[in-house]
């Protein structure tokens, strides 16, 4: 027994003594922290994956390193690019995942996001966005007077009041929406503008994991209101002019908003009524009416309500036509139809639902306008 124990201990010491110190866990200085991961379409089997790594050295000529490779799975890129850099790549600090519009339309985002979601190093609150053009070009472009690309895109996709029309989806949000049986995902849509800036210009709408179309910001703001979001950005509203021969425009800054959705619960003859209530201040106005007058203010409120009603109905008709439900109306119907429920059954019912809406706009302040 003693001889067996001695032999076992000898083997252990031999293996410990032969361990290669270069294969031990690297210290933080040796890690390459991936900040942004982007996907461009090649075909149904291969993807072009781009990564950005911040340069910790202040003496480095470039603030960020960018690498691009062709792989089949995201983690293959980590292994492949690790052979091109002196750093050990890690996704522990991954902040943003970008998809080109072509990739989002032809392959979809779900499989990629599921693979990332399985990695315990990858957080669930990583922002997702679709970009116009190629992700590789977006990441390699020069953005004057902007932070380095990792911080720039992360800050751009961080929720702010002025861009609150965007859903600001994370990996967790996207997977949850795509699998919850009552709604569909939507994510910000980025474009390069003026050569050296990125801008959230639209909202990308997904169906069954693939992008189907985009929604303009004005309609997207109302969609966020119908989701129950309270902190909405200012809205541009067009109304008939006082003499009825033209149009006027004013900018309304919301102070409060509320939505009430009523449904009949019948999937055979579905009916949906949406009541949207919004109170706010007029911060800009190009018309001739004196808004200090209660009568004039009431006329503007009525015209604005009708204008927004039409925008709401257009947005909902757009969703029905594309057979998507980014708002989540299905949640109201599932309460009445839990048995045998499926997203396919709901989307089919939603596409032929009778939808009515009523919007109430109330102006609580006109500032110093006269």
UniProtKB/TrEMBL annotation:
GO terms for cellular component: membrane. Keywords: Germination, Lipoprotein, Membrane, Palmitate, Signal. Residues 202-367 form the Spore germination GerAC-like C-terminal domain. The keyword Flavoprotein does not apply. Residues 1-19 form the signal peptide. Pfam families: Spore_GerAC, Spore_GerAC_N. The keyword Transmembrane does not apply. Coiled coil: none annotated. One of its GO terms (biological process) is spore germination. Its main location: membrane. Belongs to the GerABKC lipoprotein family. Residues 27-191 form the Spore germination protein N-terminal domain. InterPro entries: GerAC_N, Spore_GerAC-like, Spore_GerAC-like_C, Spore_GerAC_C_sf. It is a lipid-anchor. It is found in: Membrane. This is Uncharacterized protein.
